[in-house]
Design a protein that fits this description.
Layout lengths: L6 H10 L21 H6 L2 H15 L19 E3 L6 H5 L13 H20 L4 H5 L8 H36 L2 E2 L15 E2 L1 H15 L21 H16 L9 H19 L14 H4 L4 H4 L3 E5 L6 H6 L11 E3 L1 H4 L20 H5 E3 L3 E2 L2 E2 L20 E3 L19 E5 H16 L11 H9 L14 H15 L6 H8 L2 H5 L3 E9 L2 E10 L15 H6 L11
Antiparallel strand pairs: 1-5, 2-3, 4-10, 6-9, 7-8, 11-12
Length: 572
């Protein structure tokens, strides 16, 4: 398994991985023309570049748009229902997943990324840390053009080394978010060694992550977009590292990991979020130059996610139309209905004006219309009609069982018949989410209206998200800390819908057992004369066993490989 590959084999895999990344940029090119036997590795200047790039492949290898049954992860939460009656999502929803069969088992992938980082750093150290000498191997460093390329490679390597440390921190966070603890490996192992490495505690791994970020953050590129190396945008920056730190400490302060509600943990999370916001809001070339996008709907489409100043870090994928094919209504040419939003979620969108008889979706938070296709709305140049006999009749095979369809991330009017393809890029960190991290941490540490000398109060931060152009929701007025806490939870549910935060939010807040065990609902759409009638209905029951399912089970194969040093999580 992943801890036991020998170095040469693992390097060969890293070199061969990700030939086509869906991006014209070359910063993830990890290919070699021949198998990297040790002689070639030690005599080729491209080796260290490819080793530095290789860990990024493991960020891209898991495509968040098709991570579960070829679709988003949302159907394991109260956000969505899988239209198809079969799929791995039902293992989650029925509580039938385990250490032998976990549809979201990313253990091997993240440790492969960690291995790639460790191998790169060991290769560097084996050569005395002299990356300039390694970059000079078998190349012309004298001629003007090649000298410039050599000097540029040196500059890039100066950023690649701290990036490797922060990437490793990122992989470790993704592991402890799922498993609660993780073996903390900072070296590679030969297959003959079969190391017995126990899992380090959540707190110990968090401390490692924060130390790595704090040690290397100032050596990262401040902003690829505004640098002379703008075509390398997509690699870790100072801002992305600080956003990661803020997210990690928010999780560490949350009830699941902070049952005593230690104020110090919330204060640490607030300080980290403030540090990230201060950097993000700096508008010169030494800052993130981040701000909320003026178009919530379009921000998530195509290259907008890459180009927008809201994005702190995004994962780039090859153009395709898989998301549209999976989630367009079955009545739209090429569509398969996919995952459909629940009435639980739709009901959470606030009214902004009086209710309109026969149209429960009027006068709602505008993000409803930007995120979800409702009956009677226009989508892909036609009106959705789910009433009996309508074009989207809910009794049609594979039609939505909830009365709703997904819109977020989906390109409008995609010509699936002629196989039109589009970019879909995943926002790992964005300014809107950072503001909500800040609002939550500040409220828990200091209350809604005490800024503690930081950039904003919790209230100011959450209201910035709500007042985004095109959204313009009224300000949160909750005065008490507990009421404001609920406002933050609501805002995360709406603002971050379908961005793979909901499941982890429910778990870290300690709300998963209550929410995940409730039936997910939809509406039955009928029509009386010219008026649509919407009747709520239960669509699916869910099972969440607490506290067992607060953490994923370690893969049994990894426990076996560790000779029992890794102890299975309780209940599995």
């Amino acid at each position: 398994m992943n801890l036991l590959y020998n170095k040469t084999t693992k390097a060969a895999l890293a070199f061969a991985l990700i030939g086509a990344t869906g991006c014209s940029k070359d910063f993830l090119d990890t290919r070699l023309d021949t198998q990297p036997v040790q002689h070639n590795v030690d005599q080729n200047y491209t080796t260290i570049i490819q080793l530095a790039n290789a860990p990024y492949a493991y960020m891209q290898q898991i495509n968040e748009f098709n991570v579960l049954d070829g679709n988003l992860f949302a159907a394991v939460t109260d956000e969505a229902v899988q239209t198809n009656s079969v799929g791995n999502v039902y293992l989650f929803n029925n509580g039938n997943w385990n250490q032998f069969n976990n549809p979201d088992d990313r253990y091997n992938n993240y440790y492969s990324g960690i291995f790639a980082v460790n191998y790169f750093l060991e290769y560097l150290n084996k050569n005395g840390g002299d990356y300039k000498a390694l970059l000079a191997l078998n190349r012309d460093t004298i001629t003007a053009d090649t000298r410039l390329n050599f000097e540029n490679d040196i500059k890039l390597m100066e950023w690649s080394i701290p990036e490797a440390h922060v990437l490793r921190a990122y992989f470790y966070f993704e592991l402890i978010k799922r498993y609660g603890s993780a073996p903390l490996l900072t070296q590679t192992y030969a297959i003959s060694e079969r190391p017995s490495v126990a899992a380090s505690s959540f707190e110990d791994v968090v401390n490692f992550i924060i130390t790595e970020i704090d040690t290397y953050k100032n050596d990262l590129q401040p902003n690829w977009k505004t640098s002379a190396f703008s075509n390398y945008d997509g690699r870790f920056t100072v801002g992305a590292a600080l956003a990661l730190k803020a997210r990690v400490l928010l999780y560490a302060a949350s009830p699941l990991h902070n049952p005593s509600n230690s104020a110090a943990k919330w204060e640490a999370a607030a300080a980290a979020a403030n540090e990230a916001l201060v950097f993000a809001r700096r508008t010169d070339n030494t800052g993130g130059n981040n701000q909320l996008d003026a178009d919530y709907r379009n921000y998530f489409l195509g290259s907008n996610t890459l180009m927008s100043n809201e994005t702190i870090l995004a994962i780039r994928y090859a153009p395709d139309n898989n998301l549209e094919r999976a989630n367009y209504p079955i009545a739209t040419a090429g569509g398969n209905s996919g995952i459909t939003p629940t009435h639980n979620l739709v009901s959470a969108y606030e009214f902004t004006g009086p209710e309109v008889p026969g149209n429960p979706y009027a006068n709602r938070d505008p993000r409803l219309g930007y995120t979800i296709v409702t009956n009677g709305s226009t989508w892909n140049s036609r009106i959705i009609n789910q009433a009996p006999g309508g074009s989207d009749d809910m009794k049609r095979i594979n039609a939505s069982r909830t009365g709703y369809y997904l819109k977020k991330f989906l390109v409008d009017n995609a010509d699936l018949i002629n196989n039109a393809q589009f970019q879909h890029n995943w926002p790992v960190f964005r300014f809107g989410e950072l503001l909500l991290v800040y609002a939550e941490a500040m409220n828990e540490a200091y209350g809604p209206d005490n800024n503690n000398g930081y950039v904003f109060t919790a209230r100011e931060a959450i209201n910035m998200v709500r007042s985004r152009p095109g959204v313009n929701m009224p300000a949160v007025t909750a005065a008490a800390q507990g009421d404001f806490r609920e406002a933050v939870k609501h805002e995360r549910r709406i603002e971050l819908a379908f961005e793979n935060h909901r499941y982890w939010d429910l778990i870290r807040w300690g709300n998963a057992a209550d929410i995940q065990n409730q039936p997910v609902t939809g509406v039955e759409v009928t029509r009386h004369e010219s008026v649509f009638i919407y009747t709520p209905k239960a669509v699916q029951n869910r099972v969440f066993v607490s506290p067992k399912m607060n953490f994923y089970p370690f893969p049994q194969s990894e426990i076996n490989i560790s000779n029992g040093a890794i102890v299975q999580n309780p209940g599995w």
